[in-house]
Amino acid sequence: xxxxxxxxxxxxxxxxxxxxxxxxxxxxxxxxxxxxxxxxxxxxxxxxxxxxxxxxxxxxxxxxxxxxxxxxxxxxxxxxxxxxxxxxxxxxxxxxxxxxxxxxxxxxxxxxxxxxxxxxxxxxxxxxxxxxxxxxxxxx
Length: 140
What we know:
Strand order of the largest sheet: 1-3-2
Number of strands: 3
Shape: elongated
Oligomer: single chain
Order of helices and strands: HEHHEEHHH
Structural class: mainly alpha
Helix content: 55-70%
Largest sheet: 3 strands, antiparallel
Distance between the termini: 34 Å
């Protein structure tokens, strides 16, 4: 799984409760058909409901699918950790693309500082490391 590939231009759409459950069922199995998800017994919805949900996850770019007889076999494009990373990065990009980017950054620094001074030091180290990488890339 490649966490660097974009899910969509603006990132994955927020997931509803059923979508989260279905995605978890696919993660648990590695890959699954609609019938296999239902056979696991964790979901009580109808076949068409699960089929529609899996198709929606496929269209959101969160599941891959291949033909499996008369059905599809679905697999996750991202691990849970990769999906969290992609979602957070895309959310941050949206905030930074707004006219209030500096204000959003100040909120982030404030929240980090309130939570943990050590974490604020880690944030500073990350910023300095990124700045050094940018300077190296500019040939300075």
